[in-house]
């Protein structure tokens, strides 16, 4: 048994898929499969079973895997304790992030990291997904926080992808005064006559491109990289918007009842979003970034 195998198991359990785990870890699916098979042979039990619905623990796996995850967690905690005693970080780390991570995971993780390493300072840019990728590739940022897309699945070999324990689904934002607000779920086909306010210029447009070619071009009245502008416009009844659930967690517009978030089902939003961090293995702040990222999975 080795910790690499435990990392593989953790990724498979979180994603319920060996293929997605291989994409996130940037390891071939066959390598993961062989490594897990070796561990199963060593333990004398089968840990996973495959079906049309993905990869899930076997009956033995249901009680063994949590114990293996405890070992991995204790190992990570020990490494962090040792590093905190022997390493001191200082200087500035440059961060590029999509808004949904900026509004959820980033503040708390950085606050915890800053308590342990008060000499580290931050420069943070809020960008679209493709812009975060470019910032890392062009070495304009030390670390970037993105959602996993077809672009990020084919990263340069110099870049490392670090998965975060965060997934999300798509929701349609509508004004509380809209007749659509009574819906418990909705498909994009149901709102073809609505005016749309989309986040950014690239991410959602790329998702809806195939849909528009098959059905009808959406009426997009404007696009904005400012989530506050989008939510305020939707609340006023100017149009509807598509966002990830992560972007509206603990949102005052939702909690006050000014807008409603309706789960989107069906094509092209019939998948969940996975989030992660990317950084260059040759980055001057390589060790600092690695240490900082451990605070995101606590």
Automatic annotation (TrEMBL):
Gene3D superfamilies: Periplasmic binding protein-like II (3.40.190.10), Winged helix-like DNA-binding domain superfamily/Winged helix DNA-binding domain (1.10.10.10). InterPro entries: LysR_HTH_N (IPR000847), LysR_subst-bd (IPR005119), WH-like_DNA-bd_sf (IPR036388), WH_DNA-bd_sf (IPR036390). CDD domains: PBP2_LTTR_substrate (cd05466). It comes from the Bacteria. Keywords: DNA-binding, Transcription, Transcription regulation. SUPFAM superfamilies: Periplasmic binding protein-like II, Winged helix' DNA-binding domain. GO terms for molecular function: DNA-binding transcription factor activity; transcription cis-regulatory region binding. Residues 1-58 form the HTH lysR-type domain. Belongs to the LysR transcriptional regulatory family. This is LysR family transcriptional regulator.
């Amino acid at each position: 048994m080795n910790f690499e195998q435990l990392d593989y198991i953790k990724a498979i359990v979180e994603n319920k898929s060996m293929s997605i785990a291989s994409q996130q870890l940037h390891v071939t699916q066959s390598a993961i499969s062989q490594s897990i098979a070796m561990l199963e042979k060593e333990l004398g039990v089968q840990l996973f079973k495959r079906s049309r619905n993905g990869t899930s623990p076997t009956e033995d796996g249901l009680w063994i895997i949590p114990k293996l995850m405890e070992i991995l967690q204790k190992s990570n905690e020990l490494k962090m304790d040792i590093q905190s005693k022997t390493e001191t970080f200082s200087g500035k780390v440059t961060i590029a992030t999509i808004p949904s991570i900026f509004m959820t995971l980033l503040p708390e993780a950085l606050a915890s990291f800053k308590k342990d390493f008060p000499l580290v300072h931050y420069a943070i840019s809020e960008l679209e997904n493709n812009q975060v990728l470019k910032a890392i590739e062009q070495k304009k940022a030390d670390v970037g926080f993105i959602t996993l897309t077809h672009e990020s699945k084919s990263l340069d070999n110099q870049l490392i992808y670090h998965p975060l324990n965060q997934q999300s689904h798509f929701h349609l934002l509508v004004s509380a005064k809209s007749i659509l607000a009574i819906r418990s779920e909705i498909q994009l086909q149901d709102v073809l006559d609505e005016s749309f306010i989309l986040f950014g210029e690239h991410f959602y447009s790329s998702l809806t491109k195939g849909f528009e070619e098959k059905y009808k071009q959406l009426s997009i009245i404007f696009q904005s990289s400012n989530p506050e502008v989008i939510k305020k416009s939707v609340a006023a009844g100017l149009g509807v918007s598509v966002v990830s659930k992560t972007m509206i967690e603990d949102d005052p517009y939702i909690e006050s009842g000014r807008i409603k978030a309706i789960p989107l089902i069906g094509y092209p939003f019939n998948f969940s979003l996975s989030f992660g961090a990317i950084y260059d293995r040759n980055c001057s702040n390589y060790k600092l970034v690695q240490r900082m990222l451990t605070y995101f999975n606590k």
